Structures are given as C-alpha cells and as structure tokens.
Amino acid sequence: MPIIKTENLTKIYSGNIKAVSDLNIEIEEAEIYGLLGKNGAGKTTTIKMLTTAIEPTSGNAKVAGYDLLKDREKIRNIIGVVPQDLTTDADLKGIENLRMIAAFYDIPKSVAESRINDLLNIVDLTDWGNKYVSQYSGGMRKRLELICGLVNAPKILFLDEPTLGLDVNTRAKMWKYIRDIQKELGVTIILTSHYLEEVDELANRISIIDHGKILVTGTPDELKSSLKGDIITMQFSGSDEAEAARYYPNALYSSISGEDKVRIKVENSDVELPKILSYLTQKGISPLTINVKKPSLDEVFLEYTGSSIDEDIGPEQFRRMMQNVRRLR
C-alpha cells in the first residue's frame, strides 16, 4: 500500500489560477521519490498541500494512512520538512538547534538526547554538535539542516533543494548522507531539485509535473530509455539557418530553442551525424557548434516539457539561491 496516494488533488488560487489539476500520484514506503518541474509547474503547491501548509480546493490524499482533510495534525506529527532556505540559528550551537526542535514536538528529554546523538552521528557531526553553527562550513550547515527535519522521527521527509548553493564535491557528499538516512531510518523521501543529476542519482522513481499535471512517472532508467534515440544539438548564426536545419528528413523529432539552436533526435548519432552535415552543406549552412548527447534526464525533461528545467529561473528564485550561497560561505 502506498504511503502517499492522492486522488484528483486540485488547488485553484484566486483569479481562477489552477496551480495543480486532478493530481493522482502514488509514493511507495521507503522510496526516494523525485518531483521535477519548472518554477510555477505545481510542485511547490503539491508539497504544500501534502504537508498541510495549504488546503486543497478539491480532491484528497492519504498520507501514511491519514486523511489529508481530516487528520492534518496527525500528518504534521509524522512528516519532516527541510526547506531550501536555511532555518537553523547561527548564533546557537548545533545541538541547541536540535533540542529546540525536540522541545517543539514535546519529545521527552532522554528520548530527544539519544535521537539527536544518533542523527549527528549519521551525518558525521558528532564532534561539532557543541559548536556554534556560525563556525560550520556550508556543507556542515546543510547536513545540520537535513537532520533538523528528522528530530521528530518522521515516516516521510520532504527535501526541497537540499544541496542548493553547495559546490559539486560537497553536493556529492550530501547525496551519500541522504542515501544513508533513507537506508538506516527507512524514511520515505520526497525530493525536489533543480539539479537533475541529483535526482537521477538519488531517486527510485521520478515524476515530471508541468502546468499542474503529471506528464510521466518512472525510474530514471525507464525515463531515459523511453527516449529511444540520441540528441544532436546545433547552434547557428541566425534563425533562418536554424529553421532550415530543423527539417532534416531523417529526424525522429526536431525543435528550435531560442532563435538559433536546433535540437534533433535520431536513432543513432554515429550514423546520422555525417548525413546531417552533408544535408547542411547542400543547404549552404554551417553550424557554429554541435553537441551530441545520449539520453539523459535533462533530455527527458526537455522532451516532455519543451524546455530545460533551469530556463525559467526568475529574479526571486535567483535571489533566494544567492542568499543561501552567501549564508553558506
């Protein structure tokens, strides 16, 4: 039985803005589930409904057996939420932050101390628990944020951009800690991220959401293999050349991004690339750049939504990203 199951979950904001429309998803117990979508696609609204932060306009869901509409307080007690914005107090020690959360949940002191020690150990912060958070590195701060969502021993953990602002190496280390947490605690993890390689690395299954609807769900390998072809991307000096290149006759699929970039899917790039270059020569066209990609999660996202996941990072998203980067330094 799924630990989360939604039934036509819908959220309509004032002005008849339908953020989520008849959403039906099933998330299995103890899996890492990735929810991917551009800004405004509906993933944040979905998470807010499942964590009882906002009420749905219609539809319902079962969260660990509890009714989303009737058992909101019970649901809050069995979930953990780690937002992308930093929430720990830098003027307190790491262990003081964790104790404050334990007190909020009325966890008995002896239970809280044992649990906090275990959590610090899982993310290799045992020696830093009694040091002020202001002394932590960016990666250590993120690890502390991670276990803050686990103090109440949740069945389900919601992670929103858990490695935002970290460098590549530190991000990879965070992936290990997330996997360790899932394995050792058996917690179900719902993950949102703008780093597609992160979701590819961590998630057992992934759903892509766009305009409030789920477009596709599957394992990373299933989604990538569904593309059945290689992607050739070419950039040209103008829109007329790009438009001409788009109509290569052996393309399984072609599209234009911006005004001068063409994306062509072919069965086998090794076979088709020489033919494409010959076709362009006959048209008197020469690409400025050529890039060949085997199927990746980036290509899956582009295939189903028509744009890359980071194309639409707006001023507010950029501001929040930079604010977190500065705070993690």
From TrEMBL:
Gene Ontology BP annotations: daunorubicin transport; doxorubicin transport
A single MF term (Gene Ontology): ATP binding
Domain (ABC transporter): residue spans on this chain: 4-236
InterPro entries: AAA+_ATPase (IPR003593), ABC_transporter-like_ATP-bd (IPR003439), ABC_transporter-like_CS (IPR017871), DrrA (IPR005894), DrrA1/2-like_C (IPR025302), P-loop_NTPase (IPR027417)
Residues of the signal peptide: none
Subcellular location: Cell membrane
Pfam families: ABC_tran, DrrA1-3_C
Topology in the lipid bilayer: Peripheral membrane protein
Keywords associated with the record: ATP-binding, Nucleotide-binding, Transport
GO cellular component terms listed in the entry, alphabetical order: plasma membrane
Family per record: Belongs to the ABC transporter superfamily. Drug exporter-1 (DrugE1) (TC 3.A.1.105) family.
Name of the protein: ABC transport system ATP-binding protein
Species of origin: Thermoplasma volcanium (strain ATCC 51530 / DSM 4299 / JCM 9571 / NBRC 15438 / GSS1)
